[in-house]
Amino acid sequence: MLGRLLAQEHPVEADMVVPIPDSGVPAAIGYSPRIHIPFRMGLIRNHYIGRTSSSNLRKPSAISGVKLKLNPVRELVAGKRVVLVDDSIVRGTTSRKLVRMMREAGAKEVHMRISCPPTISPCYYARRHAHKRGADRLLQQPPTKSANI
Q1: At what angle do helices 2-9 and 25-35 cross, to 10 degrees?
Q2: Which residues does residue 114 pair with via DSSP β-bridges, in sequence order?
Q3: What does pTM read for this prediction?
């Protein structure tokens, strides 16, 4: 349902819709047919890697947690205009790395579509996020004409 609404509100001209595994699959399945762009699994998830937000992956290293967990399929994305679909953005660091990885894999254009509604106020039940990062940082920023990720 959210994928179809997303396609209605934010269509784009592209060659393929690629979900960010595994959370973006349902939205991408709804988004793809509505805008008549093929659904492709252009990112493969390594299921043997645990959570990439753990503290041991925050240490500086040559390989980030995102690169360990998700790998673009170069044969599918090279020279293509790609729409990446996910369910949410928490801090945006993963999204930025994914866009960079898709470009490095040869994608001509990379568009991000997020299916969840924007966060407009803090959630006081998620105390850990509100306490550690400040609730104001989690609130939606005013939309910009062009977002640089």
Answers
A1: 50
A2: 86
A3: 0.75
